[in-house]
Amino acid sequence: MLKGGIIGTGFFAGNHLNGWKAVExxxxxxxxxxxxxxxxAAAGAFDIAHVHGDAEEMLTxxxxxxxxxxxxxxxxxxxxxxxxxxGVHVICQKPFAENMADARAMVExxxxxxxxxxxxxxxxxxxxxxxVIELVRAGRIGTPFFCRGSFRSGYDVFSGQPYLxxxxxxxxxxxxxxxxxxxxxxxxxxxxxxxxTTRVNPAIxxxxxxxxLLTHESGMASVVDCSYASRRSPxxxxxxxxxxxxxxxxxxxxxxxxxxxxxxxxxEVIDASPPLLDWAERPWHNIQESVVxxxxxxIHCLSEGAVPETSGADNLKTFALVEAAYVSAAExxxxxxxxxx
Length: 341
Ligand code: NAD
Ligand code: 89V
Description:
By secondary structure, the protein is of the alpha/beta class. The chain has two domains: about 1-115, Rossmann fold (3-Layer(aba) Sandwich); about 125-280 and about 315-340, 2-Layer Sandwich (Dihydrodipicolinate Reductase, domain 2), CATH 3.30.360. The protein contains nine helices and 15 strands. The protein has helices at about 15-20, 35-45, 55-60, 75-85, 100-115, 125-135, 170-185, 285-305, 310-330, and strands at about 1-5, 25-30, 50, 65-70, 90-95, 115-120, 145-150, 190-200, 210-215, 220-225, 240-245, 250-255, 260-265, 265-270, 335. α1 (about 15-20) packs across α8. The radius of gyration is 20 Å and the shape is globular. The chain starts with a strand and ends in a 5-residue tail after the last strand.
């Protein structure tokens, strides 16, 4: 049984703690948060014996195999490097970093330490999205030539995550990053990025609408469009809608997890609704079940000595799309991903 410690017990940590209870081969033995009250409440609710106010203290006191970092991006690099100095594997929440230099430094530090570093990039692990990825990887529609990943909502994310209203960057860095990662998983790596952004909600600092055109290394194109300013019905938060075309057919993941596969002259319509886990609540159940799946993947990789699908090194390519999109939106030009330092 691998022993883990949690760093950060804020808004999203309850999902991780519930998830770890369901994961085979791992148990959380300690947790820490700078806010002692939050840490004690989480330890009480999840029956974790050891509570700390400091990550270094937790890492020194316990023989951990891994840490799960559930803090916001500015703290990721110091915490990842701290954990690696203590010789433990790391799974770290998205966004991986505040900038490309920090993201690269973390990947290099993990390589030097000989430890696994995985990013908790969970949208590609949502069961409905995963079905689309598996159908495409199995060649059901042939090699795709177009994809659209779309997330449009008017859901109030700011009440649970007030920091999202404060940063200069918002939707691409926080949400678009997931959709960009899903499209990368479906269509492959990206050569150029073009983005147009705007801020509709006057109460926040960052952009809440982004439309991004990706030119893949294959020469094919994708569109990623996301909005937290869309007042519409049905409200689809937090669903990622997908449309992907190949020479042999098309796959659509529509509102309400309706999955349509048209291929080989036949049409199949599937209810791809995620399970409602006993601790989950709508509409977050879609995200919540993906937390368990990604955690299980991390533990499987540690046990087998395998490289996680969303490793730190892999996530550099998703994070570069975020950076390129911001440069493109600011400068009004198409940005080659290999120009992102
Ligand atoms: P939060 O601010 O509510 O919680 C973060 C916690 O970390 C706080 O309690 C804070 O005190 C603690 N913390 C900060 N620095 C620390 C340190 N050095 N040592 C110990 N504790 C420390 O944030 P949140 O909403 O829980 O989000 C955390 C991360 O999860 C963010 O990066 C966010 O983008 C991500 N997130 C991901 C998903 C997803 O589906 N993948 C969903 C929501 C949030
Ligand atoms: O997944 C996330 O990172 C969340 C949310 C879905 C609300 O954007 O911040």
